[in-house]
């Protein structure tokens, strides 16, 4: 016999050399909505409609036949029935033929669509008949012995059927089947609880449950494998496999235990069954002008998800049986980690459930934000700053303040607790914070208008104090006395009336403040003083009348004394003026200038005294006194003042030129200054000569009127010292002018010599 395997390989090679029948490529219009495709798509529907079509055709044929027969003589019933049978058979044959043609075309299209030519060169069809399949090949395989061998190996290594495994399985079932790591019943019945408290409680419970399992179930398992009869039937080389089976069974039991605990915890948050859903305490807090949740949504979510992680952390340090028995270090633990997909499912489900159950609390928070966040985001501050920057009446202030007080009342009337399926939301802290914030803004405005009220009261008191101070002040001058009389008269009429209206308005403001504002002791004293001033001012006016009468009598006597004193002063100044005509010493010119200035100053003071006296006379409505001697005195002083100053200036200039450096002198400038002095002095000389001549003429006229003798009239006038000084200075200027020309020539000569030497 030939080798079966070799025959099989040969048959496979021959099969690969076979040529396929001709491959017909599909038409290019595949995928286009052709009539054939429409037939294929409507194939099922056509099947259902065939019966309807057949029935319609038969019914139509019957009606046509009936109409034909109605036009003729009615045939016999047997003949009519035979014709109907023939027509019906003909229609069925026609329908069958059409159906067969349609099915063949669909099959042909299906084959052409599926059997597409592959891109293999050696599969090209070369024509000829189809090859025949090989015959007589042996495809049998001796698998039975392999099957028996494998079955025996499984029986030898299948430790799960060991009796000890059944005991271990029963022990795990008894321990874990009706229990979970955490007792989650009654959590909702406890009422609202802090998330951290729940976390701590369940963590403690998990630790205790873990300790209980390790103190009950695990010792029993270890005790089970410390018996000699447990391992008697197991070969030494199979011992590791046996313990691996034990570890796998224990691991599966613990994983199932933890998985059921996780599933039970996730079920607490089932949206369709909220009977076990815990109720967490949450607060809306107000801190640093911010509205926040405590704990935050993220904190709550972290606690819930953290409990799942806490469950998965339990029973992770359970030693395998061989590790415990051998006491090796480090210890080998069972694989009790939950599968990743279970953990992700739990975390995803819980995260979605937490977000869903917090939606109500979030919307309640958004309600607070929408309605009251303008108190915190700076909008209210801007409103108040804008309002304070503008001018507003007291009533507009109270209306604006009332809005904030109304808002505070509205916030306090909101519910303290809001209950949701998973959350009891405590809003008290936020309510108190927002209420205080609204009251703070109201108090800002209250302090503003209270400050304005205080300033207004201080202004009223100041005006009353000013009236009192003015009314009781003794006038120093007549003008002050007249001003005081006018001031008090105005204060008695319009001033007091205006203050009375302002006090009335202040009373109205006080009535409002008593309900909403707490006055300080200083403000209370000020308010009291405002109300007392109207009764205190009348005695002050009576005292002022007596004061004015005494002052008026005193000032009249003082005015008379001042007029008499002024007359004496003018006479004294006139005598001093006559002394100027006798000044004839050029060396004392500085003293003459000083004397003229002192006389001018005294004349100015006398003129101011005249103005004061005239003003006083106007106040007392007396006739104004006039002083022509003073005007004449002012006119006579001015020429002497100019003359003395001119001479003094000439003397100083001459000394500076004569005592200064020779080379520093400027001949042209000096000549111009000397000419200027000469002209001014000539004018002065002419003025005094004309004045002397005029005075002489006046004296002659006066003497003639007095009938004096001719000899006296023809007497020569006395020499005038002032004219003499003018002539002397003129001569000095002429002499200096000649010297100036000589100095100019000398300076030019010196310059020429210096140039020649250089």
Protein architecture, described:
The relative contact order is 0.04. The N and C termini lie far apart (156 Å). The model is unreliable at 1-33, 68-74 and 708-714 (pLDDT under 50). A four-stranded mixed beta sheet has the order 2-1-4-3. Among the domains are: 157-356, no CATH class; 379-545; 581-695 and 720-757, no CATH class. With 758 residues, it is mostly helical. Helices cover 72% and strands 3% of the residues. Strand 3 and strand 4 (423-426) form a beta hairpin. It has helices at residues 4-16, 35-41, 43-71, 77-114, 144-157, 163-176, 195-225, 239-267, 297-313, 321-326, 340-357, 359-372, 379-389, 394-412, 428-472, 478-516, 521-579, 589-620, 628-659, 667-705, 710-713, 721-757, and strands at residues 280-287, 290-294, 417-419, 423-426. The longest helix is centred in the C-terminal third of the chain and has 59 residues, at 521-579.
What does the secondary structure layout of this molecule look like, with pairings?
Blueprint: H1 4-16, H2 35-41, H3 43-71, H4 77-114, H5 144-157, H6 163-176, H7 195-225, H8 239-267, E1 280-287, E2 290-294, H9 297-313, H10 321-326, H11 340-357, H12 359-372, H13 379-389, H14 394-412, E3 417-419, E4 423-426, H15 428-472, H16 478-516, H17 521-579, H18 589-620, H19 628-659, H20 667-705, H21 710-713, H22 721-757
Parallel strand pairs: 1-4
Antiparallel strand pairs: 1-2, 3-4
């Amino acid at each position: 016999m030939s080798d079966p395997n070799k025959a099989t390989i040969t048959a496979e090679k021959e099969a690969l050399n076979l040529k396929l029948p001709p491959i017909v490529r599909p038409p290019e219009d595949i995928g286009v909505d052709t009539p054939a495709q429409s037939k294929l798509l409507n194939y099922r529907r056509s099947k259902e409609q065939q019966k309807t079509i057949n029935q319609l055709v038969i019914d139509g044929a019957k009606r046509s036949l009936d109409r034909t027969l109605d036009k003729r003589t009615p045939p016999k019933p047997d003949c009519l029935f035979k014709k109907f049978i023939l027509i019906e058979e003909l229609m069925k044959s026609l329908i069958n033929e059409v159906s067969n043609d349609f099915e063949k075309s669909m099959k042909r299209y299906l084959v052409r669509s599926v059997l597409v030519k592959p891109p293999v060169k050696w599969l090209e069809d070369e024509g000829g008949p189809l090859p025949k399949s090989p015959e007589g090949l042996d495809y049998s395989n001796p698998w039975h012995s392999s099957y028996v061998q494998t079955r025996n190996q499984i029986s030898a290594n299948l430790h799960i059927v060991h009796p000890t495994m059944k005991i271990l399985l029963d022990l795990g079932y008894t321990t874990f089947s009706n229990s979970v790591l955490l007792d989650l019943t009654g959590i909702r019945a406890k009422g609202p609880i802090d998330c951290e408290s729940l976390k701590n409680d369940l963590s403690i419970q998990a630790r205790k449950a873990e300790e209980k399992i390790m103190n009950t179930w695990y010792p029993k398992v270890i005790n089970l494998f410390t018996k000699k009869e447990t391992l008697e039937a197991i070969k030494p080389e199979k011992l590791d496999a046996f313990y691996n089976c034990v570890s796998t069974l224990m691991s599966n039991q613990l994983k199932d235990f933890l998985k059921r605990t996780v599933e039970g915890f996730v079920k607490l948050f089932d949206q369709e069954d909220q009977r076990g859903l815990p109720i967490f305490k949450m607060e809306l807090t107000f801190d640093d002008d911010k509205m926040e949740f405590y704990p935050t949504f993220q904190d709550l979510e972290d606690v819930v998800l953290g409990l799942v992680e806490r469950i998965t952390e339990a029973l992770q340090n359970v030693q395998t049986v061989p590790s415990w028995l051998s006491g090796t270090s480090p210890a080998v633990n069972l694989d009790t980690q939950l599968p990743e997909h279970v953990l992700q499912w739990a975390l995803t489900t819980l995260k979605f459930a937490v977000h869903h159950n917090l939606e109500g609390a979030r919307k309640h928070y958004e309600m607070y934000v929408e309605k009251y966040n303008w108190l915190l985001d700076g909008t209210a501050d801007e409103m108040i700053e804008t309002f304070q920057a503008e001018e507003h009446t007291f009533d507009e202030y109270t209306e604006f303040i009332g809005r904030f007080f109304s808002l505070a009342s509205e916030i306090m009337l909101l519910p303290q607790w809001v209950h949701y399926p998973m959350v009891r939301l405590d809003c008290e802290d936020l309510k108190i914070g927002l209420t205080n914030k609204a009251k703070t803004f109201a108090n800002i405005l209250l302090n503003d208008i209270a400050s304005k009220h205080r300033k207004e009261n201080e202004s009223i008191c100041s005006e009353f104090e000013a009236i009192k101070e003015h009314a009781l002040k003794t006038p120093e001058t007549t003008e002050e006395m007249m001003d005081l009389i006018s001031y008090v008269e105005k204060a008695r009429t319009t001033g007091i009336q205006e203050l009375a209206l302002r006090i009335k308005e202040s009373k109205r403001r006080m009535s409002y403040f008593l309900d909403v504002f707490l006055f300080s002791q200083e403000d209370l004293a000020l308010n009291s003083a405002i109300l007392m001033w109207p009764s205190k001012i009348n005695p002050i006016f009576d005292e002022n009348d007596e004061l004015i009468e005494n002052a008026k009598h005193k000032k009249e006597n003082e005015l008379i004394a001042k007029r008499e004193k002024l007359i004496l002063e003018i006479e004294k100044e006139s005598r001093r003026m006559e002394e100027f005509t006798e000044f004839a010493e050029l060396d004392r010119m500085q003293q003459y200038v000083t004397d003229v200035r002192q006389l001018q100053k005294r004349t100015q003071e006398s003129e101011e005294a005249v103005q004061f006296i005239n003003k006083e006379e106007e106040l007392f409505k007396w006739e104004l006194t006039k002083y022509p001697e003073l005007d004449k005195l002012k006119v006579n002083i001015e020429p002497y003042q100019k003359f003395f100053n001119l001479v003094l200036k000439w003397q100083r200039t001459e000394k500076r030129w004569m005592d200064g450096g020779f080379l520093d002198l400027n001949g042209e400038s000096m000549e111009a200054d000397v000419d200027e002095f000469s002209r001014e002095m000539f004018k002065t000389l002419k003025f005094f000569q004309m004045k002397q001549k005029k005075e002489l003429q006046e004296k002659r006229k006066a003497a003639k009127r007095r009938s004096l003798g001719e000899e006296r009239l023809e007497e020569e006038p006395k020499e005038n010292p002032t004219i003499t000084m003018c002539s002397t200075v003129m001569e000095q200027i002429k002499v200096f002018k000649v010297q100036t020309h000589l100095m100019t020539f000398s300076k030019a000569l010196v310059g020429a010599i210096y140039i020649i030497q250089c």
